[in-house]
Design brief:
Layout: H1 3-20, E1 22-27, H2 33-45, E2 49-52, H3 55-64, E3 81-84, H4 90-98, E4 106-112, E5 115-118, H5 123-127, H6 132-156, H7 158-171
Helix pairs in contact: 1-3
Length: 172
């Protein structure tokens, strides 16, 4: 691979890091071609982009995208496959699903919206992360709840409130 090809790969990885904002670094070494193809198909079906790249090129792309590579430096050893997704927890859920009966793909590290996770022991934490849409939905639900309670109280006790207001006026 010549310098120009490496530069193109770094540029493409940099654009993907900026576009997706989330990426996972995994180890898929020692898997058969059939298993790798099945993994690629599964990720593609779920909107996750998968790419194999050299660690030095991944490191250069991270630096070009403004991602601090010092914390993920441990993850960039050995064979590396990088996964990109707009949904932060999607790759982790897929990795857990694929690992039923298999020990690969192995999670080496992840970068989720400025947070860094290093090591395979972080897989459960990453899989349980809520997506941005889920969090927005929960916040809207929490904000609507008090308003709904007030409205239902006003509607159900219309005569009680009127009587209460009249009593308060008579006392004053």
């Amino acid at each position: 691979m010549n310098r120009e090809e490496k530069h193109e790969i770094v540029q493409a990885l940099t654009e993907q890091i900026k576009e997706y904002g989330n990426f996972y670094i995994t180890d898929t070494s020692n898997l058969t071609v059939a298993k790798i193809n099945a993994i690629r198909r599964k990720f593609f079906e779920n909107g996750v982009t998968i790419q194999v790249a050299k660690n030095t090129l991944i490191r250069k792309a991270m630096e070009a995208a403004g991602v601090d590579s010092s914390e993920l430096g441990e993850a960039l050893k050995g064979s590396s496959t990088i996964l990109f997704s707009t949904v932060a927890n999607a790759p982790a859920k897929l990795i857990k699903e694929l690992r039923k009966g298999n020990d690969k793909p192995l999670l080496k590290g992840a970068y989720i919206d400025t947070a860094v996770f290093v090591g395979d022991n972080q897989l459960d934490a990453l899989a349980s992360l809520k997506s941005k849409e889920e969090l927005v939905g929960e916040i809207i639900g929490l904000l609507q709840s008090p308003a709904k309670n007030v409205l239902s109280a006003l509607q159900s006790g219309g005569t009680t409130i009127a009587g209460l207001v009249k009593t308060l006026q008579e006392r004053g």
